[in-house]
């Protein structure tokens, strides 16, 4: 009985988290197989062990999220002629999958790391002007979403630049110097997107801000690229035109405000929604009716033009006949 009550409570909390996205998707044309994992809350001990092992405290909003549900996964499909096609995916790693991707291994000739690629990169994000994360020990970077291989959404902890460490807390044994160096109980965290070329793009200033951003984009394919200077692919733009056209325009206005106009110059192909979702129905266009003038011009007889081969054959036959007549005339003389 207690397990059923706990499960019902978790479902209610998840419904509050997704702010009615499922009901919104159910009203959209062609959407089917909307599935959300019913995950239990993460064990508080597991969260504390993660913080101790990584030497930093999770921000309160992210910690409360894990104590509500251990990660998040919502997927939805679209009805096509060949069956349901996966389109949308909203995903957050479990606390056990929140792994560090940079800043924990010293670079060397024998053991190269991502830090070796950082020398030629810019220090600030082109769109927002915010300082980019560093692959060295000044930042701790953890993967929140692997994005099916087209990039990574990362939670970035920044080093406390004030240089102030409360020695009393160290003496009391409350925090280690590593915990204090990365903000203590109030860490400075941001959410960034790392694309496949290892370029950083700023997404949100907190986990909850990113979570709301993910819900507003409905987990559409490669939606993170829509708020970068790279822009969406043609296929991703088509899905946005069908299911989130308003969001697409807002992202373009945001990029225009930040001075990134490259995405708006990309041509957009219109997709016939009726052909996508109306299975077996095709619009057969009738041939255009011919006018009387066109019919009259069509009925006019065109002069017969002999082919080159026929002309050549006729000419050679005439020459042969003429020559033979000349020979017969000379023979009678």
State the gist of this model.
The chain has 333 residues and is α+β, with helices and mostly antiparallel strands. 37% of the residues lie in helices and 17% in strands. It contains twelve helices and eight strands.
Walk me through the topology.
Blueprint: H1 2-17, H2 21-26, E1 31-36, H3 44-54, H4 60-66, E2 72-80, E3 83-92, E4 100-102, E5 139-145, E6 151-158, H5 167-172, H6 177-181, E7 189-195, E8 200-204, H7 207-216, H8 234-243, H9 245-257, H10 273-277, H11 292-299, H12 308-332
Antiparallel strand pairs: 1-2, 2-3, 4-5, 5-6, 6-7, 7-8
Helix pairs in contact: 8-9
Can you walk through the features of this model?
- Helix 8 packs across helix 9.
- The chain starts with a helix and ends with a helix.
- The longest helix has 25 residues, at 308-332.
- With 333 residues, the protein is an alpha+beta fold.
- The protein is globular.
- A hairpin with a 4-residue loop joins strand 7 and strand 8.
- Helices cover 37% and strands 17% of the residues.
- The chain contains twelve helices and eight strands.
- A five-stranded antiparallel sheet has the order 4-5-6-7-8. A three-stranded antiparallel sheet has the order 1-2-3.
- Mean pLDDT is 75; it is low at 163-174, 261-271, 305-309 and 320-333.
């Amino acid at each position: 009985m207690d397990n059923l009550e706990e499960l019902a409570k978790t479902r209610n909390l998840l419904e509050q988290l997704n702010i009615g996205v499922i009901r919104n998707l159910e009203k959209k044309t062609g959407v089917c197989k909307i599935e959300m994992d019913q995950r239990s809350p993460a064990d508080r001990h597991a969260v504390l062990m993660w913080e101790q092992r990584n030497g930093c405290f999770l921000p309160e909003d992210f910690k409360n999220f894990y104590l509500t549900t251990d990660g998040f996964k919502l997927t939805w499909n679209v009805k096509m002629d060949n069956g349901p096609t996966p389109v949308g995916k909203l995903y957050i790693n479990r606390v056990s999958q929140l792994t560090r991707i940079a800043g924990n291994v010293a670079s060397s000739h024998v053991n190269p790391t991502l830090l070796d690629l950082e020398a030629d990169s810019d220090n600030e994000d082109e769109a927002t002007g915010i300082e980019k994360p560093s692959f060295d020990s000044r930042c701790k970077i953890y993967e929140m979403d692997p994005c099916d291989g087209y990039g990574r959404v990362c939670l970035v902890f920044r080093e406390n630049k004030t240089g102030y460490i409360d020695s009393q807390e160290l003496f009391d044994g409350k925090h280690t110097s590593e915990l204090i160096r990365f903000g203590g109980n109030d860490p400075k965290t941001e959410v960034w997107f790392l694309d496949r070329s290892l370029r950083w793009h700023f997404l949100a200033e907190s986990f909850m801000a990113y979570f709301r951003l993910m819900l507003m984009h409905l987990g559409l394919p490669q939606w993170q690229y829509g708020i970068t200077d790279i822009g969406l692919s043609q296929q991703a733009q088509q899905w946005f035109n069908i299911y989130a056209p308003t969001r697409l325009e807002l992202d373009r206005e945001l990029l225009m405000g930040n001075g990134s106009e490259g995405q708006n110059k990309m041509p957009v192909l219109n997709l016939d929604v009726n052909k996508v979702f109306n299975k077996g129905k095709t619009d057969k266009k009738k041939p255009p009716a011919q006018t009387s003038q066109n019919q009259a011009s069509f009925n006019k007889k065109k002069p017969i033009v002999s082919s080159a081969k026929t002309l050549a054959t006729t000419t050679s036959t005439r020459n042969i006949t003429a020559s033979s007549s000349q020979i017969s005339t000379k023979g009678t003389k």
